[in-house]
Design a protein that fits this description.
The chain has helices spanning 5-19, 25-40, 49-53, 61-71, 77-89; strands spanning 58-60, 93-97, 100-103. It is mainly α and 106 residues long. The protein starts with a helix and ends with a strand. Mean pLDDT is 74; it is low at 1-6.
Amino acid sequence: MSESSATAGGKATRALHELEDHDDPLQARLFAALDFATEALPAEWQPLLVPLALHERFVQAEVLELMAQQADNRFDRAAIDRFMNTLEIAGLLRAVGQGCTNCTRR
């Protein structure tokens, strides 16, 4: 990846902003949380925001892992699990079982 991870994560968040309607206060809160996550996540995890942004409502760790490895082989399942657990603690994801996580819309 030629861009810095922070730049890639920021571009993914900005792309989501352009696609969404800004009149909804719930979406505004979601984007504020995503902006926070982009800035607060460790730099080595920020590239994972790009494949995560391609999911709509649910994400499976196995699928995210396959997507991430297509672009960057440094992400193994343990790294994906730590990334998703961190986003769950931040309230951005919610585990729903069977390795499936709900992308929270608050």
